[in-house]
Amino acid sequence: MKYFRFLIFLFFIQPGAAQTGSWNIINTKLDLTEKWNLFGELQLRSLRFYDDFHYYEIKGGASFAISKASTISAGFGIFDTYSPGGNFKSPMVNDEWRSWIQFNMTQYEKRLKLEHRYRAEQRWTSDGFRNRFRYRINSALPLNNKKIEAGTYYLTASNEIFFTNRAPYFERNRVFLGAGYEFSPFFTLQAGYLHQFDYKISDETGKNFLQLSFLFEMQWKKKTGEKVPGGMD
């Protein structure tokens, strides 16, 4: 508990630093069967602490569990970026529609749970069509239970790289450090600090964010197994 409180303290003093924005996520998932689920996500981002909102995205899709440790997913969404210096200030920097397919693989190292995500995106942007490829490794470590379940505090960290099939190929890197609490099988709250490094791209701005995620999971049919909390991003 003392480590969890210390991390939360760090997250909430971070907005005092210059150019720290907010990154807000509402993620929902509906488990239809043991293997199939539907998901949806809404994101709202700002360049300053809950001011200068410049970006939103709305997306959703479906996932299929190939095995206990692997899933395949497909999704589609809208991703819009506005000019900096105000709340949804015109002109729009990027108006984008995106589809993707991804493969997730999980593994356990004692209590630590690791998730590897491989994603291929097809992007229809203001500058034309673009492909993008992403790899993310995400970790979750429960603190007061052996696994993440109702009443569990946990630490989480991830790193993701973005690249394309065009020179200079490397596009972006994201690093996230956070903590969360699962209130019930239905609701999990997660907060953390995200740093983003971009290589000469203009479809999104901002480097440092306080990320706050509200994660809802509904079950048409109860599923077994442990989950890795986190947004779709």
- Approximately how much beta-strand content do the residues carry? over 45%
**Helix content range:** under 10%
Rough shape?
globular
Counted by DSSP, the helix tally is: 1
Order of helices and strands: HEEEEEEEEEEE
Please give the CATH class: Mainly Beta
Strand order of the largest sheet: 1-2-3-4-5-6-7-8-9-10-11
Distance between the termini: 28 Å
Oligomeric status: single chain
Largest sheet: 11 strands, mixed, barrel
> The CATH topology is what?
Porin
**Low-pLDDT regions:** none
Named CATH architecture: Beta Barrel
- Mean pLDDT over the residues: 88
- Backbone structural class: mainly beta
Gyration radius (Cα, Å) is 18 Å
β-strand number: 11
Structurally, the number of domains stands at: 1
Could you walk me through the main structural features you see in this protein, from its secondary elements to its overall organization?
The protein is mainly β. The protein has one domain: Porin (Beta Barrel), CATH 2.40.160. The chain has one helix at residues 2-13; strands spanning 20-31, 36-48, 51-67, 70-83, 89-109, 112-125, 128-142, 152-163, 170-182, 187-198, 208-219. Strands 1-2-3-4-5-6-7-8-9-10-11 form an eleven-stranded mixed β-barrel. The longest helix has 12 residues, at 2-13. The radius of gyration is 18 Å and the shape is globular. The two termini are 28 Å apart.
Features:
233 residues, mainly beta, Porin, 11-stranded mixed β-barrel, 1 helix, 11 strands, 67% strand
